[in-house]
Amino acid sequence: MKKEAMFYEMSKEKVHCFLCPHNCVIENGHTGKCNVRTHEDGKLYTINYGEVTSVSLDPIEKKPLHYFRPGSQILSVGSFGCNFVCGFCQNYDISQFKAKSEFVSKEELIKTILTAKNNIGVAFTYNEPSIWYEYVYDCARFLKETDPKAAVAIVTNGYISQEPLKELLPYVDAMNIDLKSINGKYYKALCGGSLEPVLKTIETAAKACHVEVTTLLVTGENDTLEEVEEIAKILSHVDPGIPLHLSRYFPRYKLENAPTDIGFMRKAEEIARKYLDKVILGNI
Ligand code: SF4
């Protein structure tokens, strides 16, 4: 469903969106880099409001969140669109394309969350939730007002501006944030983004809710022990209690590099443990 977007202003016949650090300036009839925010005659609209492409009751560990209400299940929902263009995206069919979706109103979603058996709440995941902002914000707020004990989790690339992030955080209990690399060139070349805003998101979120971080170790791109050590060191400066998931890469979408070497992953885990209390290997 089309809905007027938050976080934009008009200037010189163009719309300036400041939901994410791309800060797109969009001409009439065009969309932003995320492909889900479009300028129509002086207004910015989000086109994926309430549009659900995927829904599943998942173990919380699958998000991955290993230290937030472990052993529980969470209703996980996603839409389409992303503000990154990672060549190795595992969910490229919904992140890079306008996948088939079904409209689910805020009220319907909250009813499903509250009536699903053995469910602790909702996780916004699969595609990038930050560019599904208006729906995520409305649902998270409505759920917390209806049942403050219900959990809200966000699985994100962390590429969101500070103002929208801070407005959303009071309704969020847990986040898993990707820290894809500690190298700005990697972010630019492989993801079409930048590193600094992601680090800022981790810092801000860690003060407000439970945070875990995921790094996908991509063969030939960021699989060096020096890089893993740097990631662990930086996270330890935020909080050495932040769990770090080192995740194994498999060829997907546009990237055909070999899967991550498991021997390397074990060494990476050892190095990261010098700085962080909790390091978890994923996808192995
Ligand atoms: S949310 Fe979309 S339109 Fe807005 S700045 Fe980011 S990429 Fe551009």
Bound molecules: iron/sulfur cluster
Structural class: alpha/beta
Major sheet: size, sense and barrel closure?
8 strands, mixed
Sequence of secondary-structure elements: EEEEEEEEEHEHEHEHEHHEHEHE
CATH superfamily of the largest domain: Aldolase class I
- CATH architecture heading of the largest domain: Alpha-Beta Barrel
- How far apart the termini lie comes to 39 Å
Helix fraction, binned, reads 25-40%
Alpha-carbon Rg, integer: 18 Å
Total DSSP E strands: 16
Could you explain the architecture of this structure?
This protein is α/β, with parallel strands linked by helices and 284 residues long. The protein has two domains: 3-46, no CATH class; 51-282, TIM Barrel (Alpha-Beta Barrel), CATH 3.20.20.70. Helix content is 29%, strand content 24%. The protein contains eight helices and 16 strands. The protein has helices spanning 92-95, 106-115, 133-146, 162-168, 184-191, 196-208, 225-238, 262-272, and strands at residues 3-4, 8-11, 14-17, 25-26, 37-40, 43-46, 51-52, 54-59, 73-78, 102-103, 121-124, 151-156, 174-178, 210-217, 244-248, 279-282. The strands form four sheets. The chain has an eight-stranded mixed β-sheet with strand order 8-9-11-12-13-14-15-16. It has a three-stranded antiparallel β-sheet with strand order 1-6-5, with no helix packed on it. Strand 14 (210-217), helix 7 (225-238) and strand 15 (244-248) form a beta-alpha-beta unit. Helix 2 packs across helix 3 (133-146). It is globular, with a radius of gyration of 18 Å. The model has no long low-confidence stretch (mean pLDDT 97). Iron/sulfur cluster (SF4) binds next to loops.
